[in-house]
Amino acid sequence: MDAVFFDFDGVILDTANVKTNAFREMSLRFGEDISIKFMEYHLANMGISRFVKFKYLIEVLKKKAADNEGIEKLGKEFSEKVHEKIIAAPFVEGAYETLIELYQNKIPVFVVSGTPKEELYFIVRKRRLNRFIKEAHGSPPGKTEILQDIFSRYSFRPEMSLFVGDAMTDYNAAIRLGMKFLGIIPESGISPFDECTNVSKKVDVSGFTFE
Known about the structure:
The protein is of the alpha/beta class and 211 residues long. It has helices at residues 16-27, 32-44, 50-61, 68-87, 95-104, 117-126, 143-153, 168-176, and strands at residues 3-6, 109-116, 135-139, 161-165, 180-184, 198-200. It is globular.
């Protein structure tokens, strides 16, 4: 195994519900019908930037022109709503132990997240995860672009590298580059991945093999 790449929300920290609840609360101001459609979009597009989601809310669902200032304002409000809860969030089962194991085995770890860069950096430092993580990358750019940049700078082989994620954006980015993939599905969750995909409710890469 050359390197392991992790999504962040719902994979390292158990924060997916924190953000989902915030999206629901904010979208309700636009009416229940729009909120329902927005939440369907959010749940079908886990892992993409909140700014992309708010742009969809305004332009597609509200059918209004979305200016950058308005989208930035919504993004800032969202960050304020979730910030403290994310800082206090528990680890996804097995995540912390896996980070320690990879660090001890000298396997490089990268975070590739849809969370805005500065916010991600702050959370990683606040939770002292920078001890285990070689690089942490948030949006923009997208996950495929982040992965391509990392592979261009290191000698890692995509086919010998693993992406651990919980959303189709993670899966699609990994498959585009020829990486192995492990999907993390919570106990009560439904897998968005096809039946051939390796999935687990617990973060554990110790038994992952490369053929």
